[in-house]
Amino acid sequence: MAKDQRTIIVGGGIVGVCAAYELARRGRDVLLLEQNAIGSGASFGNAGIIAIGHPPLPRPGLAIKVLRWMIDGSSPLYIPPRFDPEMIRWFWIFHRSCTAERFQLCMKVLADLGRLSQDCFERILADESIDCEYHRDGWMEVFRTEAGFETGRHEAGIVRNNGFEATELSRAELLDREPAFQDDVVGAVLYNDSAFTDPMRLLSEIASAAQRHGASMREQCSVDEIVVRGNTCVGVRTVGGEFIGGGTLVLAAGIWSTKLAKLIGIDVPMQAGKGYHRNVRRPKVCLGVASVFAEEHVAATPMADMLRLAGTVEFSGINNKMVQRRLDMMSQSARTYLRGMEQQEVISEWCGLRPCTADGLPVIGWAPNVGGVYIATGHARMGLSLAPGTGEIIAKQLCGEEAPMDISSMCVARFSRRKRKTRDQLVAM
Predict the structure, then answer these.
(1) 94 contacts: CB under 8 Å, gap ≥ 6
(2) pLDDT (tens digit, 9 = 90+) per residue, 229-243?
(3) In angstroms, rounded to a whole number, what is the distance separating the alpha carbons of residues 308 and 301?
(4) What is the DSSP letter of 55?
């Protein structure tokens, strides 16, 4: 890509913003387009845990559990029963991905991308003097049952085998470190290499840094078409009919990437994994480190004057409907694990849509068959953790350099179905 050619980034979440930053600091002409406000999607309200080396969603045995969870609206991973061919296809790929071999491959790729992201985090925070409540104190998975603790030990061993630290804490060690927990906890695993932060403050700070380096950003600008001439992208057209030209397009629009990619014949099958958070007033005795209640699959992260409760995965389509019982189950989990949570003053509630591929890996790489389109999406619950490394990969590849790690397993073409004619799907200028 020529240095003076504009790069259009579609999507103002953490991945798009990190890509804009990395490209702008290399002197590239960058225009980021966001259909709502920068950072208003899944990046806004997640748990804020930067979980380096965290396992993927598909794992051995999980597909059978999901079938049972489908009829339980209070389950941590809920799929309301419905006839949806794309959901059925997604679940079939998910089922085939829940093997030990696939799990090991995903762990290797995600570990490499996590290490790259960690290095990028440290560089960005130092170079830009970013203040976002970034705490390099790790995060904890806390257990109330011996069976859960045993599963946690096994998972910690997998994380260690991929080069990360994980420290087991007994009940006494946990309560000495974090007196906010109830006495009936049995122990915890501390993932030492990780961190936690205020995700929106982090995103806003990186966006501001990108703009200082020359990136332009437009909010309330919804892309309706990817404009292609001669099998090469030449720009986009907005819902209002405005044509915006560019030499390269980075499609980082989260769950909405699927629809836009389909316009140019590219198959990126994803489902929207709805997550929730409930911010409550910080209790008198509060956690000092972000923690996940293992048996409930709910996270609790201290932020400023509040405690954020976040979690669940709900595959109910692309919508922002909040189900009250799923919000309430997070508060119940907090009361079960933590002291002083009986009277929670609720500050705010939220839900957001995480772009989930079925095979556990993001989609990162050049689009097949259409020149000038780079796709970066599908980070599921790990967008915050993996976005800086993804931004670095995008910038290097768009600048004609080699990717800093092997990204072949995350290629777009892995989802390609039998070849179809796509000329009619191309939007001619």
Answers:
(1) 57, 58, 63, 66, 358, 359
(2) 999 999 999 999 999
(3) 5
(4) P
pLDDT of residue 425: 35
Least confident of 63-72, 162-171, 182-191, 348-357: 63-72
3-class DSSP state of 149: helix
Provide the CA 102 distance to its chain's centre, in angstroms. Answer: 20
SS3 100: helix
Give 280's strand partners. Answer: 307, 346
Separation CA 290–CA 354 (nearest Å): 20
Is a pLDDT exceeding 70 seen at residue 404? yes
pTM over 0.70? The answer is yes
How far apart, in Å, do the first and last CA atoms of the chain sit?
21
Q: Could you give the dihedral angle defined by the CA atoms of residues 115, 121, 122 and 127, in that order, rounded to the nearest 10 degrees?
A: 140
Position 138 scores a pLDDT of 96
Residues 270, 274, 280: CA angle, nearest 5 degrees: 155
User: What one-character-per-residue DSSP string does 205-271 give?
Assistant: HHHHHHHHTT-EEESS--EEEEEEETTEEEEEEETT--EEE-SEEEE--GGGHHHHHHTTT-----E
Nearest to 296 by CA among 144, 177, 179: 144
E strand or H helix that includes residue 184: none
Domains contained in the chain, CATH given:
1-53+100-133+196-266+362-429 (3.50.50.60)
